Amino acid sequence: xxxxxxxxxxxxxxxxxxxxxxxxxxxxxxxxxxxxxxxxxxxxxxxxxxxxxxxxxxxxxxxxxxxxxxxxxxxxxxxxxxxxxxxxxxxxxxxxxxxxxxxxxxxxxxxxxxxxxxxxxxxxxxxxxxxxxxxxxxxxxxxxxxxxxxxxxxxxxxxxxxxxxxxxxxxxxxxxxxxxxxxxxxxxxxxxxxxxxxxxxxxxxxxxxxxxxxxxxxxxxxxxxxxxxxxxxxxxxxxxxxxxxxxxxxxxxxxxxxxxxxxxxxxxxxxxxxxxxxxxxxxxxxxxxxxxxxxxxxxxxxxxxxxxxxxxxxxxxxxxxxxxxxxxxxxxxxxxxxxxxxxxxxxxxxxxxxxxxxxxxxxxxxxxxxxxxxx
Length: 375
What we know:
Among the domains are: 21-126 and 300-329, no CATH class; 182-219, no CATH class. Helix content is 8%, strand content 39%. The chain contains two helices and 26 strands. The strands form six sheets. Strands 1, 2, 3, 6, 7 and 24 form a six-stranded mixed sheet that branches. The protein starts with a helix and ends in a 9-residue tail after the last strand. The model is unreliable at 1-30, 56-61 and 298-303 (pLDDT under 50).
């Protein structure tokens, strides 16, 4: 049972490599450059921009470190602009602020506290085309030991919509729900309301025993860490190319494979596929990332080498910048894959109870039910 749990964890980690997560190798410098990541789209905001210190990927301190800047301004080529607000280590537009419009070009201006100013080159927002349909197929294959492994392949059909633009990026986002049992995790003394609570406070159980041990629990509040939702992503960019294109259409394209995992299919999996339009410059940026992903064997190995940027420095001491800001139209579709879609329910691997907070189970956890989730 323990080995099954570890195997399930490995599968989740493999699936959770996010296509947007990029490590930039900038070498060792005295003054660290910065990384700027984000985009504007034709979908409602807020749009989010991340600004952080770049780092040496060989360093043991290679973690994303958000930084505070003087000003971040998003503007278009017809005179509209908006200053972004710092919220939770990133910069955001307002809910009813500037919104991307097809045909307009957008740029981002970042002003640092040391006098440096960076501006992205204008990027034109092109039509998204149409994501016509998404579907899945249950698959069985034999591993090197001859044992069966099961998964769901995610497919899509789409059309370019514009015969002048065939540059697209497709993203998979999977969301699943899992239940845990933090009340089963007896800890060392957790001091809460003047007593040792012994179990995580987020479980909602309150120890009322006197003396503190053995504990006597009452329900003090609803459990805040018993149920979480998690997100998984395709591990590398899926881009259009001439081999995929047939008469302006992209048919039967495999986007991602989801392993038949006991945690993922404890309830069901929500699948969302997004189609992003790309300008030639933005396509080249994502293509360079895909080429490097294709060149390495391990999904856990960070991207190496220099990645192009569309930012130029206009003021301040000369220090390099990494990252890319772009404009895109988005077409999306979603569906659910449920346990009923598994040919035999016994194919779903058994998993042991998780006697801890659901936040400790997998990355990308939230206890807030997504708006799209239907129980």
